[in-house]
Amino acid sequence: MRWTKTFIPTLKEAPAEAEIPSHQLLLRAGLVRKLAGGLYTFLPAGIRVLRKIEAIVREEMDCAGALEVLMPALQPPEIWKASGRYEQAADVLFKVRDSKNREWLLGPTHEEVITTLASTELQSYRQAPINFYQIQTKFRDEIRPRFGLMRAREFIMKDAYSFDVSDEAAMVSYQKMYDAYVQVFKRCGMTAFPVEADTGVMGGRHSHEFMVPAPTGESEVAYTEDGSYAANLEKANSQGAITATPSECTGELEKFATPKVKTIENLAQAPYNVAAEAQIKTLVFIAEDKPAIALVRGDDQINESKLCSALGTAIFRAAEAEEIHAALGAHPGSLGAVGVKDIPVFADEQLRNAAGMTTGANEDGFHLRNVNTARDLLDVKWADLRTVREGELSEGGHPLKIQRAIEVGHVFKLGTKYAEALGANFLAEDGKQHPFVMGCYGLGVTRTLQAIIECSNDEHGVVWPQAVAPWQVCLTVLDIAPEGEVMETAQSIYNELTAAGVEVLMDDRDVRPGVKFKDSELIGIPVRVSVGERSLKEGNVEFTVRSEGGRENVPVAEAVARVRATLS
RNA sequence: CGGAACGUAGCACAGCCUGGUAGUGCGCCUGCUUUGGGAGCAGGAAGUCGGAGGUUCGAAUCCUCUCGUUCCGACCA
Questions:
Q1: Which residue did the predictor score with more confidence, A118 or A276?
Q2: Where does the pLDDT of residue A492 fall: very low under 50, low under 70, confident under 90, or very high at 90 and above?
């Protein structure tokens, strides 16, 4: 490809809207342009990278035995109502109406569609195991699209769905996808490590996310350095807080005045001096229109994913001050669960044997001291509700670290939830109908593209891994006069490389050398071969590996072999 | 959806406080020079100052509303 025959609009400066390096480079290297928030046009160089990632994904999926299909993006709401997600996922669903005013959904994912297909097409245990995948555009009404392709409203995802006859068989399918994902990210030149994940609104049980460590990532991962444990912070657990929770009974319950105390912090200071770990933090949520109380230690943070599991519903939110007052008779700052009867109370395990604690008295301006959770709390449901902190010990006894990461893939063992809801049953050997045990496997293709840039760039621009680079070689021609020796040498190198199947971008633009060098580095092509009068006089061309920098003279005759050796 | 900031030429920004001819750099077009690390000179095109209303003799500038963008929190590939 000649540069003058394609379209690579590079930018010297990053547009103000782009904050993180990968987003800036996406724009500066001429890969994409924004149409509106979370909506991007892929330009020629961008689409080349995208196709390469897709090809890797396809190969690994095919290799794992998954079958490619293509499902409609437009979906009938009925199947979403049947699975229960029409309400559950309402906030991300794009809804459209046709000319007859009938409602349709733009698919954010395809469990409902594939399960509907399975309900009629898969009838016998003999058809399992089977796994369908597609690479398709998804739509999600993200409340806040951001960071370019990282969180877009329209994005490309590879989604796969496995159907098995038993839990054990489903684990085999799950493991195949897990292994395939490891391969995909490795081939894309990235370190993506699997971590245990929360299953969230998707339902199901067993789940891993594939995470690319990056300070700009939107997820947080807790892990141990010895590699024995890694989990999404939403899911991570530990042996408990580093500091012990008080457990000595200090006497009878006692109410005391705490005017102006609104926070854990206030109470921790003089004149009260109640350490945060000796306080009980009381949080009120509205779960499916009813109040519920969650208790964690004063210095702990509630983990809403864990709370979701404890509550048994994803439909909950923090209560408003008025709702709290109506439920408990006090405002935030003076809340507690002592004596609460009619509202369900969920307490974190860290508080199970706590004694001598302090908590709000449900009377504005008052707290209770000498609280003994076993004695003073009625009908508590104990659960792990806290977010782990760095330094705590994993179950295996190793200290936890916490790091930000980009989630590029997610594998789930779904169980029978969707199969049951949508009637995807098979006739088993025993002559009875059973629901299929499903798994679903998402991989963000466009997000992966940006994640690769995020972890592979330098001050000059993108540094594409070979496998996904838009072109493998940039042939920089420093004198474009058509009949000149420089151009003729370049053309013959171009012809030979192209004939050998190497993808070459020949920079034949009428611009100064500096511009060509800068641009080739900005768009990040792995190998650059510069042909110019100066080195040609010595019979050489210049050879530069993007990831290494520097330059090396290589005789013209050896240039092609050298490139091929470097790329192999 | 809660909090904050910002919308002026394709891009980056100044001008706004204190109302009075819309600017700078990059990019783009023409010409000349230059030609190995984002060239120089000369000339040129390009802006409903996000939109609507208001105040005023006069609004990019002050006021109100609105739309959009970005950032921080609650959701996810």
A1: A118
A2: very high
Indicate if the pLDDT at residue A386 is higher than 60: yes
Asked if strand B comes closer than 7 Å to A275 Cβ, the answer is no
CA dist A161 and A180 (Å) reads: 14
Q: What is the mean pLDDT of chain A?
A: 93
The shares of helix, strand and coil residues in chain A, as percent rounded to the nearest 5, are: 30, 30, 40
Interface pTM (ipTM) of the complex? 0.93
Is the distance between the Cβ of A536 and the closest atom of strand B smaller than 7 Å?
yes
- Measured CA to C1', the nucleotide nearest A409 is B77
Q: Find all residues with CB under 8 Å of A565, minimum gap 6, and list them.
A: none
Is the minimum distance from the CB of A142 to strand B below 7 Å? yes
Nucleotide nearest A446, from its CA to each C1': B77
Give the model's pLDDT for residue A200: 58
Strand B proximity: list residues 6-35 of A with CB under 7 Å: 10-17, 19-20, 28, 34
Query: Is A111 near strand B, with its CB below 7 A from some atom of it?
Result: no
Fold adopted by A471-567: Rossmann fold (3.40.50)
CA A356 → C1' B65, Å? 55
- CATH 3.30.930.10 for domain A34-237+402-454: yes
Q: Among all chains, which residue has been given the structure tokens 């000149």? A: A484
Q: Give A421's contacts (C-beta < 8 A, 6+ positions apart).
A: A82, A83, A84, A115
Domain made up of A254-383: CATH architecture: Alpha-Beta Complex (3.90)
Classify A49 as helix, strand or coil.
helix
User: Is pLDDT larger for residue A312 or for residue A62?
Assistant: A62
Domain extent listing, chain A:
34-237+402-454, 254-383, 471-567
Query: How high is the pLDDT of residue A204?
Result: 53
Contact by Cβ (8 Å): A401, A319: no
